[in-house]
Inverse folding.
């Protein structure tokens, strides 16, 4: 069976609606798909309701979410780390309380970013960003779109390089709850906490081991050994780290939009046979 346990829809920073995402996953031969939008389960809730009313797919949907957190292991201000919650109970009051808190944090972060950009001479982008986000969660990609719209930059990539990426004025991390709290939210909601795309944090091996250790101590159960189309040695390193810490392994495309071949739904690299897959827990 083909599992893709990390993907995004228009309810966060993805380009496809949940229905379009499912259709694309079906064409790719995916058997089990987790829609893991940032800090919201609105998309997966909507599509599960639609499928219950009109079951027209053999694809199995797994309730999921990707939660922002702050890891305090690398300095006073810590660093942003994402936790994927898989197989969560969508009607859990603990989950709903956590998401309400996350949505407020996202609004607070957006207000800070807008203020910082305004002090750089840009107009107040917050109203347009809120409108662009619509029913979805507010994120930095929405600011990137608005910077392109006002001709401040030529592309979203340029917006991140100059204003929104790591270390830039739009890189706001201290609005998020601590990693151990976020892992606890997932567990309280009956889900499995997965450390998302560990290789993408660009940590030294020593710091990555420290992050995984703290994650496990907080109650985390799996790490994404595979995230998208991945170089073999990176998969091996993460597989070894997974085994060293007695954790299960997850895999996913981290799909956001068509045209990104390295993150195409259902086209991620294969999970090594030596790994204990996260779905063995369910």
């Amino acid at each position: 069976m083909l599992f893709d346990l990390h993907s995004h829809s228009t309810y966060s920073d993805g380009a496809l609606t949940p229905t379009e995402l499912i259709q694309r996953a079906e064409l790719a031969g995916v058997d089990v798909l987790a829609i893991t939008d940032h800090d919201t389960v609105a998309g997966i809730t909507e599509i599960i309701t639609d499928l219950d009313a009109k079951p027209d797919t053999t694809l199995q949907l797994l309730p999921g979410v990707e939660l922002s957190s702050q890891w305090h292991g690398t300095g006073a201000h810590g660093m942003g780390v994402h936790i994927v919650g898989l197989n969560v109970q969508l009607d859990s009051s603990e989950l709903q309380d956590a998401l309400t808190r996350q949505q407020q944090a996202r609004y607070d972060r957006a207000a800070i970013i807008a203020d910082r950009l305004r002090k750089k001479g840009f107009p107040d982008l917050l109203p347009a960003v809120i409108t662009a986000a619509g029913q979805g969660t507010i994120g930095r990609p929405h600011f990137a779109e608005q910077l392109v719209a006002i001709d401040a930059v030529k592309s979203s990539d340029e917006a991140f390089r100059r204003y929104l990426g790591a270390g830039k004025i739009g890189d706001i991390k201290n609005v998020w709850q601590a990693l151990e709290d976020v892992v606890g939210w997932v567990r309280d909601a009956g889900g499995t906490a997965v450390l998302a795309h560990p290789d993408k944090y660009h940590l030294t091996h020593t710091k990555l081991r420290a992050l995984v250790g703290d994650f496990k101590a907080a109650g985390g159960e799996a790490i994404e050994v595979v995230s998208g189309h991945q170089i073999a040695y990176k998969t091996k390193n993460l597989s070894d780290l997974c085994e060293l810490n007695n954790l299960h392994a997850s895999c996913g495309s981290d799909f956001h939009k068509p045209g990104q071949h390295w993150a195409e739904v259902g086209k991620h690299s294969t999970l090594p046979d030596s790994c204990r897959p996260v779905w063995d827990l369910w």
The chain has a mean pLDDT of 93.
